[in-house]
Amino acid sequence: MATTTLAPRAGTWRQSWVIDWLTTVDHKKIGILYIVNSFLFFFAAGVLALVIRSELMVPGLQFVDEATYNQAFTMHGTIMIFLFVVPVLSGFANYVVPLQLGAPDMAFPRINALSFWLLPLGGILIFSGYLFGGAAAEGWTMYAPLSNARYAEGPGTDLWLIGLTLVGTASILGAVNIIATVFKMRAPGMTLFRMPIFVWTVLATATLILLATPVLTAGLIALFIDRNYGGAFFEPSAGGNPILWQHIFWFFGHPEVYIVILPAMGVVSEILPVFSRKPLFGYRAFVFATIGIMLLSFSVWAHHMFTTGQVFLLFFAFMTALIGVPTGVKMFNWMATLWRGSLEFTTPMLFALGFITMFLIGGISGVMLASPPVDFHLQDTYFVVAHLHYVFFGGSVFGVFAATYFWFPKMTGRRLNERLGKVHFWIHFIGFNLAFFPMHPLGISGMPRRVADYSPDAGFTLWNIVSTVGAFMIAISVLPFLVNLVATLINGERVGDDPWEANTLEWATTSPPPPYNFDRLPPIRSERPVFDLRHKHDAEHMAAERRAPEEGTA
Amino acid sequence: MGSSTAHSRWRTGHRVGSLLLLIAALAGCGMIPPEPETETARSVFTLYNIVLAMGAAVFVGVEGFILYAIFRYRRRDDRLPDQLHGNNLVEIIWTAIPTIIVLILFAASAITLGEVEARVDEPGQTIEVTGFQWQWEFRYLDDDEDDENDHTVVGSPASPPAMVVPVGEPIRLELTSTDVVHSFYVPNFLIKRDMFPAGTEGGGNQLEFTIDEPGTYSGQCAEFCGDLHARMTFTVEALPRTEFDEWLESAKAGETPAPSRDAAGTVLEISADEIAFDTRELSAPADQPFQIHFTNLEGVVHNVSIYDANDAEILIGEPITGPDAEITYDVPALPPGEYTFICDYHPVADMTGTLTVQ
Amino acid sequence: MTVDAPTSMSADIGASHAEIGHREAGMPTPLVGMLLFIASEVMFFGGLFAAYFNARAAFPGEWGPPPPAHALEMLPIALPLTLVLVASSFTMQFGVWAIRRGDQRALRNWTAVTLLLGVMFLAGQLYDYSILGFGIGDGVFGTVFYTLTGFHGAHVFGGAVGLTILLARSVQGQFSARNHVAVEAVSMYWHFVDVVWIALFTTLYILG
Ligand code: HEA
Ligand code: HEA
Ligand code: CUA
Ligand SMILES: [Cu+2]
């Protein structure tokens, strides 16, 4: 391979180190590349969010004009979703899933590397619109005909389309890899119903990606053809249909939101049991709820289109609200996991608890939006912006931070400083609520989203000030996090292989794990092999207890 | 000294506390929508409150339990708690409870939806509402077939239009757009509906409502439609029927006939397409009247207006909508100098230019 | 589908190094990957087909190529091309069966024939494009027609590249009865491309 031919010529350790990372096909290194790359995009999109919030703090245009503002929120939404949350969770999946399955690597290591490298490429293309007369500015939803060449001139939108096609291809290849890994690479004894919940959620996510993303790709290409080759898919003046774009986009877009929440739910389902010292309550119910959400998520897309007057309102309203049921089952199982546990409030646990408390708020606002008459009032107002940040940020991103604190010792052998971690959590948590809770009242009183300015008489000013203050608090909370990362890498506490007394197989190997992960595996007789190993004397008793309520598990 | 710092700390604590309380109270009130001003708005309002109450109950129950668990079960010693793996009965119970909530919400939503979507045979007034980048056109349809008789109001970002309507009778809006998707939204009516470009199959939406009280209600475009989306505002002015009739009568009478097109002298040519003028520079002779012959090549409303260096109006051109519409504006004699010409409907760089008079 | 560890409760050792990552039972991993990839391709074409049917349902006028061009006809080009592609699916499968028996020569010959048929199909389609009399910019029909057939063509091209590699490798005798996953994978893909064409042909030419 390229590495071996280049290595002798690479004079210094520095060069070989760089080349090693650039050409690696090790799932652990690729996972870390994913995570680092995603955080860089998070900071970029976060800075755009600060531009948005600064402009909105008080009425009038202070910092940017409308065109710049529109680019800012389009890029903010696009980057946050496609280049931060989705890939960062893929990164954790990449790192953790083979370890949790007791596998030496992913099924297709080279394809794994390819699907990573497409991401920065796509991201740079999307951003490069800024260099060619302005980035895309039609919102992350790119509604036609606003996104047709007539109304959206310039290469920014084309670059957005090309970039997203690459990013989408990357995640499809990644999904193929994950599913094949789960079905072909499990260690002996790792039956499907002994897989950690995180693996289940990642499997469900990969299935969603595999089935939903290609539809978006088809739409992106159709729009590209409309824009560049005189196509008429979405152009009403040529007989095309702009509503078709909305159907295609949301057929993908709604599964997409579960793509970013399911793995985060998986993370939380790993962390709560560890720090409650109990098994996850209702493992099987949890698996079925995950599958239920996965299936339902293909039948609700038109809840984003209630106000178009073009969809079967009651059907989509019912299916949408129904998704609250499996999600509720998960919520209640988490609560029961805490119940009569022995809770330890480490930083990962705090972020996991932050997830369940905040995601609940986003879930409830989602169910409110699922009622069409209520949505007629709230659609495209800040209430939706509040909803989406409570689920994305309060949900997925809290999950991402929980995962970072939780698996950092596995990746590096060192634990992030707990004190700084708690400072990070609390500033983050308070800032988050200050930034996004006010968006509910704003939306309810009628403030539309995607506006650079609002009337001073509308009564929106106070809440916008609070929200902007909150946004800057979130930005500040990132500082202790970054300091913590750097300081720990240089001089962090070395904590051994299993600092949290955790349950799953990744903790059965060294930290960081060797190439190909395991020399030897513990026996796998439940979904908590490492727990069983630690409590060997109870193991038989435990296994007997397990069989009783869950007959039929192989 | 100790006591005074303690005191001031208490005072700060008190302040922070009351601020937090204030915020919480505001947030609580903030969760209630604006005063509903139409019949349908009232039923949406009721539904909203039911939905909110259910959400609040779930919120309090779940968060309450989590908080309780956090305080009650914090780790005190190294003992391993009971290893509870699950219980099928509770799983069934907590699948059933949300299902019931969902069914109730669904039933309530379905009933309200019926009320919101109800249509009368004979609305008191039908108005054709057309959205364009970036403003509104309201056309008051009357009984005769002749479009020329219909009264039309067109807004511009600088002066958003008012939609005058009678109270106490059903108003029907027929919603379309000349370009991209817009959305008609009045917060006090608790309703919005998207407006699709003409020609979109199935895209001809309607909205119907009956306003209770005379008053002025502000509205705004709610679907992102490009640069000046934020400035697509309007108001709804509800008047008693008699006053409305008087208004409509006088508005129709006051409509200026098309300006004469026969004066001689200099004629400047300008045209508009794809939200851009074909030229950004015009020049005209000083101190004598001239004309501007304006061609609008696209199906989007445009006009040409002239402002002097102090932004005072010289000419507010009548708007026209193509494709291939033409109009001739008469411009009074102007002193030498630089003037700005602009499309009031699209005050963007591509539709702004300099008129040099010398 | 899953292999269990020895069930004896006293065994404290799980898998040893040699056992980790070896799951020979069931379908070979590359074929699993290919099947999953094909699943995503199904959704891709599903999206395009949905766009076709939506465009057709929403179209105000009469559906079909824009006026100067005449309606699509099966003869003289489309129907023969369909036969060519269907035939190529058979020749591909003969190749697969051959190598399963270990017959390298037959694999090579059948692969060559399949490749030839694929190239014939592509050439025929390009010729068809050149005489159709409407382009991708000619109304909704033009757009969906060229997008669907164009993407299908691109997939045939991709398959042809795969076949070329397969041919080169089989000339070098790289495949055997035990070791021919690549042949199976390419054939799966080729059959898929064939099925898409049959769906396209039915939609565009038979349903009209
Ligand atoms: C991670 C992302 C994520 C997640 C998980 C969700 C989850 C949900 N979303 Fe959300 N949504 C978005 C991201 C997400 N959403 C985004 C980004 C948009 C805006 C896109 C845009 O326009 O830009 C959006 C918009 C959006 C809309 C359209 C709003 C509009 O534009 O008009 C609707 C409407 O129905 C909706 C509903 C829901 C529902 C019902 C859920 C449910 O899954 C929630 C389920 C969870 C719970 C209900 C809480 C726990 C349950 C219990 C404790 C049980 C008991 C409770 C009850 C039965 C009430 N969402
Ligand atoms: C995962 C998704 C995600 C996340 C995490 C966020 C995070 C944030 N979002 Fe996001 N947002 C969306 C997804 C997300 N958003 C989407 C999908 C939309 C809709 C877009 C559309 O309408 O098309 C949206 C829209 C949106 C709007 C509405 C814009 C409008 O409609 O006009 C606003 C307004 O306040 C907003 C604010 C914020 C803020 C303040 C944060 C903050 O929490 C961000 C916090 C992060 C930081 C502040 C970064 C910290 C970094 C630094 C301080 C720099 C350090 C730098 C170095 C070390 C190099 N967002
Ligand atoms: Cu018109 Cu927004
Ligand atoms: Cu959705």
List the helices and strands and how they pair.
The complex is a heterotrimer of chains A (554), B (358) and C (208).
Chain A lengths: L1 H5 L6 H11 L3 H30 L9 H36 L7 H19 L27 H30 L12 H32 L13 H35 L6 H14 L16 H10 L1 H15 L8 H23 L2 H7 L3 H31 L1 E2 L2 H19 L2 H6 L16 H31 L1 E2 L34 H6 L1 H12 L7
Antiparallel strand pairs in A: 1-2
Helix pairs in contact in A: 3-4, 3-5, 3-17, 4-5, 4-6, 4-8, 4-14, 5-6, 6-7, 7-8, 7-9, 8-12, 8-14, 9-11, 12-14, 12-15, 15-17
Chain B lengths: L1 H29 L8 H34 L15 H30 L7 E8 L2 E7 L9 E4 L7 E5 L3 E8 L4 E5 L4 E5 L9 E6 L4 E7 L11 E7 L1 H13 L13 E7 L2 E2 L3 E4 L5 E7 L4 E2 L2 E3 L5 E4 L3 E2 L3 E7 L5 E6 L9 E6 L1
Parallel strand pairs in B: 1-5, 4-10, 11-14, 13-21
Antiparallel strand pairs in B: 1-2, 2-3, 5-8, 6-7, 6-9, 9-10, 11-12, 14-19, 15-18, 16-17, 16-20, 20-21
Helix pairs in contact in B: 2-3
Chain C lengths: L28 H30 L15 H28 L2 H29 L6 H33 L9 H26 L2
The structure holds heme-A (HEA) (2 copies), dinuclear copper ion and copper (II) ion.
One heme-A sits at the interface of chains A and B.
Which short descriptors sum up this protein?
heterotrimer; A: 554 residues; mainly alpha; 2 domains; globular; disordered N terminus; B: 358 residues; alpha+beta; Helix Hairpins; Immunoglobulin-like; 3 domains; 5-stranded mixed β-sheet; binds heme-A; binds dinuclear copper ion; binds copper (II) ion
Name of the CATH first level of the largest domain in chain B: Mainly Beta
**Quick one: how many beta strands of chain C?**
0
Q: Please, how many helices of chain B?
A: 4
The CATH superfamily of the largest domain in chain B turns out to be: Cupredoxins -  blue copper proteins
State the CATH architecture of chain C.
Up-down Bundle
Secondary structure tally, helices of chain C: 5
**Percent in helix of chain B:** 25-40%
What's the end-to-end separation of chain C, in Å? Answer: 45 Å
Bound molecules: heme-A, dinuclear copper ion, copper (II) ion
Q: Gyration radius of chain B, to the nearest Å?
A: 30 Å
